[in-house]
Structure prediction request, 436 residues.
Amino acid sequence: MSVKHAILALLSTGPKYGLQLKQEFESTTGDVWPLNVGQVYTTLQRLERDGLVESDDPGSDSAHNSFVITTSGQEELSRWLNTPPDLVAPPRDELVMKVLCALKVPGIDVNDIIQTHRRHLVELMQQWTRLKEDEADFDIGFALVVDAELFRLDSVARWLDAAEARLHRTPIKPQAGDRAPVLRRRLVRRK
Amino acid sequence: MSFVELRNVYKSYGDGAAKVDALRGIELSVEPGGFVAVMGPSGSGKSTLLMIAGSLEEPTEGDVRIDGLRLSGLSRNQKARLRRRTIGYVFQDFNLLAGLTAVENVCLPLELDGIAARKARAIGMAALEELGLADRSNRYPDQLSGGERQRVAIARAVVGERRLLLADEPSGALDSVNGEAVMRMILSACKTGVAAVVVTHDAHLASWADRVVFLRDGRVVDQTNPPPSPESILQPSTGPNEPSL
Ligand SMILES: Nc1ncnc2c1ncn2[C@@H]1O[C@H](COP(=O)(O)OP(=O)(O)OP(=O)(O)O)[C@@H](O)[C@H]1O
Ligand SMILES: [Mg+2]
Prediction:
């Protein structure tokens, strides 16, 4: 997540102090993402160095300075808003790894492993939903962040459902050595 | 005390080679005000469980109690009255009456309970409004979309003095905003003491319940623990949520 661009977005409505930016960042994201003020100042210094913001008293202690966004800051903000984020999945998703490993370990039922993680996901989702139940009506930023988290967890739960259904249709061969020939046989049959 | 209770419930369909064991020893109880979601793969017995909890099917073995009454000890008439007075159903095929408008469908159970027509209509309109259907109230079912019909069925199940709400995939045809409106409506019914059992394969919707029960092959294989305080997920220690530069 880009604190840098969030700060540019907050400055696009007018000049602000560092502490103010920290507070606005947190309230914009529904207080779900705490941000320490040191991180805000470091980010402001870098933005200033890159000419994306200007301070009213360059060179002095940033805690007392007010910052404004520059024209190139505005361009950078607009470019960022329109650029797709990195949606490439991490190369080794930990949950996928666990399920793949569970297939290999003797005495472990992969269905039980899947259920353990499914329950955990649903419990987490229950917690997020409780928050929405109480606060969604009051704070739109908060509700959007909670929804995003719920949809992310939901997609993981769906993957578990799909994995379970796939394993159900395709019984597991216990020895790893068996697999390659099976795969080759299938490829041959398809021709 | 539980409002609905299933004890060691078995249900088989057919016999011989064609015999299907849909439920195999279900234990489930829901307190007044309790909101239970049932999840599980297709064919795991979710709809069967709901039909038995609603006295629409008889268990092959085991006991079902609603409001302390053993269903096996009730006459047909007593069961019919229990179903009409106490239980609100939302089933996969919504069962709206084609000759009645949306609001008339919603009011029907109220009027059957002896509530005056005007008052029943006001209650029905309020329920439709809550589900975003105020301007559809005078349409007939065949003039409504699938998701709209579904919401009418939910409004009908929730109005009145129902004390047990049974819903099978109540949000099947709904987008996420309407699905959420439906779950909120069920939740607010529970806050007044209604016990609810909702079948869904959607974790997002199940997460509105205070307990989620997982079915596999006719058995309860797992359930969620009562969630700790929601604030715990907002602590900075939850790694993935921390902002980084
Ligand atoms: N009337 C019936 N006669 C015979 N078998 C039935 C009958 N009703 C259900 N079954 C069988 O009982 C099992 C459980 O069915 P049920 O409808 O409860 O599943 P479900 O969990 O609701 O599935 P889905 O998610 O697909 O709705 C299935 O194997 C089904 O084929
Ligand atoms: Mg079903």
